[in-house]
Structure formats: structure tokens, C-alpha cells
């Protein structure tokens, strides 16, 4: 049996692996600037030339962007599943809104389940911050813009995905963040107009979901997340039916036979 030589791994390859892990687990986020070269080299306990070589390898892979005189950044396009033109197309189509909610139904229930099982103290602090921001929007009782409320809602669900410690779930949710945010903005306008109790229901559902995750009640968290999306689906289905009835009535009104 022939035995090949064991190739000694370069120090820069170890640094590449460490930085890739930080990107995958969400420690380094798309668009985030890396610490200055000197500080990062000290943090890893490596020489600056080795760090520089590792950064160049990640730039070649498209994971990092190096800006002349401006430092190194995680690529902003990582996980961007949907381009802006496609967002615009999806935003105006009711069937796309329905499809996204169906997708969220499974995805976010699993995120909540694993977050309740795996959240660390740091995760709970981040989740608390996101939850508090969402509650501040709700406390304004309609004075917060739909965009502000949609962004706060999406950030809360993203914090849950981060706490799940499932890299595939996290990057799927992160890649959908803009679409999720727009979906919430589109949904809440119609929901609030249709049912006066919607705001209170959403407040209670998010509070219950937050409590279940913070208390480590995984099955409860999954159930509450599923019920939350089901409620949104039911209200929007009612809204779409109301719109269809209104459109039929308007067509009859415009009919020349009347």
C-alpha cells in the first residue's frame, strides 16, 4: 500500500476556516466590516501577513470584499435569495404573499422550537432587544409607520432564527429578510383595516412566543409560532375574499345593463 505525504496545512488556511465559520454561524454578517487588520491578527494570535493571505483567499471566494483604504467587509450579497426587481414582482401578487406565509409556517415553527432548546444567554439578550423594539412599535398604537413595525417584526423573527443555532435556517431567514419585511408591511395594513382586534392579537401572540422561547418550552414555542402564522393566513384570506367581493360589486355597478 502506498502512503502519500501528509501535507502540512498553511496557517492562512486555518484562519480562512475560522472566518468562514464566523460567517456561517452569523457572527460576521453580510455587509459587516471586519475589525482592523492589527486587531484581528491579535485576536487570532497570528501574524498580519498570514491574516492578509487568508483575507485574499476569502476575497477570491467572494465571501469578503476588500476596499482600498476602507477595510474588509463581508459580502452584502451573501444569502440574497431574491433580487430587488423580483421583490417588486412578488410584493404585488396575492398568491406570492400566500406562498410566503405557507413557507414561513414550517420554517418559523422550527426556528422557534430550536431557539427554545438551544438559545444561549447572549441569544436571549439579543432576542430581548428585538422583542422590546417590537413592543415599542405596538405601544405607539398606530403611530409607528407600517415600515417601522414591519422591520421590527422581521428583526424579532430573525433573532429567533439566530437563536436556533441552525445555520441553514438562519441563512434562509436572513436571505428572505427583505421579502419578509415587505410581507409584514403589506399584511398588517390589510389586517388592521379588516379586524380591529388584530393588533392586540399580534401583541399577545408575540408575547407568548417570546416567553416560550425564553423559558425553554420548545414544543409550546413551535405550537405558538404555527398558530401565529395560521392567524395571519386566516385574516389575509378573509381580506382577499372581501376584495374579490368588492371587485365583483364594482364590475356590476359599471355594467352597461344596469
UniProtKB/TrEMBL annotation:
The keyword Transcription applies. Keywords: DNA-binding, Repressor, Transcription, Transcription regulation. Residues 9-77 form the HTH gntR-type domain. SMART domains: FCD, HTH_GNTR. Pfam families: FCD, GntR. Transcriptional repressor for the pyruvate dehydrogenase complex genes aceEF and lpd. This is Pyruvate dehydrogenase complex repressor. It comes from Pseudomonas neustonica.
